[in-house]
């Protein structure tokens, strides 16, 4: 009997810790607080955070305008096991020059 | 939800959702069946039932039901949402987010779906999508605090620092703080999170002012002070930084970061010139040591800082420092002093000090007396007999570390003779024997250590590892099983469940040596799968950490997970697997394990063998393709049974034969693993070595070139780089026959960006020789250069000169020799390989493993 007691305790402990672990992923209802006050506070936040990256957009437009040869894209894809999108991008960044593109990729 | 149902069933449907959310799967299933009895074609209920079945691991049924549900109600956001959840549980993130987006097209303001989508987006680090989903959620539900914090996080990870701070400020200003313990803690954490954003943005002034304001609400005092110290140092407000650093040292004197911060503050405040800095740092350590005589770090740091000019001081300090360990019998002394071995003169000083101890103990039974000095609180007198033992043990470890294995063995044997009951001595002996190449006796010794304390898991682990090193797989498995839980699972499956990666790496290596590729691959793949699990495990934290507002830990977690595959276990298993795939590609007959074929091949000439191998390869590829087809017919279920069927992953296909058969092209599989290594272990020269091996076999010359360039950038003077440069020149650039089919653009890049940039105008052998003379002290580089010269050698004369270099093994570890032997056998003549092996056997006569 004496031997069994700690064994049982251990089991109980394991069971408890398993249960606690399980709880971590439990569904917990979200707490709602002062919805009205927050609704008011939000206005300033949302406007300013939708800022546009004009420069980024400009660069993307420039890249999109570069003419590239689809055979060249295939070469990059084949030689470097790259997907089409990143191969195209690499080629565009090098103004459509295949050798230049390959050169940047072997560094 | 469930809107097409009558009101009674509608409420039942809501019940069903609730049961699912609270993980009451049995009740959920019953409720679903109840609705389906009346409305067997109700799409949303069918889909929900599928989801419930998925949770109880009935994958096949789950997919069928969810698809059927969707078919019956394509316009329902619930069905699409469920479809997404199903994919997500199988880690098909792309498919899952596609399904969520479809659901949102039907119901764009569904908070539940938006929330799930956001989880997926942060999991896949799709930050742009994450911020827009989070913005929508905040607009819809500004009353939930999670939405505020998550939106701040979205701005933070996109480096919109000012926005992130503003969001936290607005939120904190609006909320009415609770005063229970949990709320107080959360408030402090959130402010510390904000502070970390300010610091990350480089706005140290604002960060400090903010810290001042939140002084009273922060619970985590150490983090608070650490932030103060960092920001003050960044602003060079040295006096204040010094004060804070001292306060931190008061809290914990054994934290080296605090010492460094303290030194930096004082040194820049006093404007100490570069050459006087070590001196001043030592003084600062001494001051601290005086008021805190029991602390070790202030005594240990000066040993690193002293230069050769103060040799006497070094010896004196070392003497008093090590006595503390010796008199208490602390076995960690050798590890503690490891960093000193970088300086040759310190190594000699250590040796002299300890042999002096040994002699003194022999003559007078005590350590030599010390002059009365502030550094040595220890009184002289008779030393206990145990001190002799610890001195001998240290000397054994010392000689082992500097490569004098005979000396090491002499001391360890004497130590064991002196006191045969100390376990550490047997462990040290096992390690020395391992370095001698005597793996059999090393394993026996580790087993002896294990038997001295059967309840010690560390000893068990070491013993298992040593057994695996000499391919004693059965003993190892039996031993290690002594420490697995008495659960339902046993053996290797239990180790897999515990994600015991050192074991899987070691046993994988053992199976590779034993030419059991299936089993090897199975174990190496197990390691890869653990990392998939680690990454998946993040999912739980995306909700949990936001709810608990433990944002600092959460951000750390995200950063750790980003880099988790750079862990040594992942890279080790990946490298071993790549090597295995290369071997299987070169020697495909191994795959069937048929010894006859191998023997038959061995008798053929090189050309014939190649022909036969390529034939075999083709027939195997065909077979594999046929099997693949058959598998597809059996449906997708195969891979998805997973944990469900009762059998664990290690128990299904236990010998890895299915896994091995499933690989159609070993080079494609190797390339897949290499992409991970190139991303996560780019600073490891071995990554590029393997990339070259794979690229050259796939005729991807540009990738081979890239591997050489990268290796040369990481370690220009290493054995690996030199050999790669030579091989690229010989095998690609000068090999017109081989490259004849390559595109002109490819050849142009190879000729303009190739080895000429590295070698310059020198001849190839001139380049190798220069590196060899330059780095005479490193035996690894010297031997690597010897190997490179052998590759270049055009006549017998040059060959024998290269062999001379290779046969000088002074300073080479057994491990290096073993690796060299295997590299040589891939290109050198048989008699050359043999004579190299002879040289190794001469240096390591005890070696018990085939080279």
UniProtKB/TrEMBL annotation, chain A:
Bias type Basic and acidic residues, positions: 7-21
CDD domains per UniProt: UBA_HYPK
Domain Nascent polypeptide-associated complex subunit alpha-like UBA: 66-106
Leader sequence segment: none
Region (Disordered) residue spans: 1-21
One GO-annotated biological process of the protein: protein stabilization
PANTHER family: HUNTINGTIN-INTERACTING PROTEIN K (PTHR31184:SF2), HUNTINGTIN-INTERACTING PROTEIN K FAMILY MEMBER (PTHR31184)
Protein's name according to its UniProt entry: Nascent polypeptide-associated complex subunit alpha-like UBA domain-containing protein
Organism: Rhodosorus marinus
From TrEMBL, chain B:
GO CC terms of this entry: cytoplasm
Keywords per UniProt: Coiled coil, Repeat, TPR repeat
Compositionally biased spans, kind Basic residues: 612-621
TPR repeats: 77-110
Annotated region (Disordered), positions in chain: 612-652
Residue stretches in coiled coil: 225-252
Top-level taxon in the UniProt lineage: Eukaryota
SMART domains given in the database record: TPR (SM00028)
Basic and acidic residues: compositionally biased ranges: 624-641
InterPro entries: NatA_aux_su, TPR-like_helical_dom_sf, TPR_rpt
Name this polypeptide is given: Uncharacterized protein
